[in-house]
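Q: Could you fold this chain for me?
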Amino acid sequence: RDGRDATAPHTLVFDRIFAGDVPHRNYGGSVFFPFEVAKARDTRRMQLAADVRTAMSLPSAARAEQSVLLLQRSHNRQLVGSQSGSAGEVVKALCARGLAVRVALFDTLSLREQVKSMLETLVLISSHGAQLTNLIWLSEHAAVVEVLLRFGWCCDPVPSKQYASRDPDRPGCDCRAYHKADYANLAQTYGIRYFYVDAEYIDPPYGWNPIFRNRVYIDAEEVAKLAALWVYGFRN
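A: Sure. Below is the predicted structure, expressed as structure tokens.
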């Protein structure tokens, strides 16, 4: 579609990352759900993203001008600190480490505004969700921190008896392994450094889909420490 020969050779560098044997806090305690994340850096896709940025006249910002972006969702899976239950706790922890922080919702922004915001980001922090698709616009020295939804993960779909229950009975289903590696794969495809953290707690599901949750509670200090390591250490 971009006018280039779709059959033209391009570079693919393949690798595999095994991310298994990780303890998952579940209804019965720690359960091990191993999964594998494919890593494939596709330079052609990376170039297409760069071409779009160029067409929008949006060059990548200098590192010194970039900041940490806490990308929230307006209707569910909002990131909050585990101590106070507020998003302000997360912002405060990031600022305490001397990090420049922005908080954004992309619901009402144009595509150009979203791309520009990504180019001004050195570390993107967000819960699992479609908003993380925007990571393809990050500059090559940026990183993404995804908050996974593995806490209490089991039934998919969720039985109705579990809706909004904070202490559900052990579900009458065979637990499925956590399989949400969408953005780990996407980040690797576009050459973006990817990190993940587990939630300390997640609100009970309010519907059949196990990702239907209102708030995701995180260790704000842990996330701030990871962001600071990238900003002050890993990038050098």
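A (continued): The chain is about 25% helix and 25% strand.
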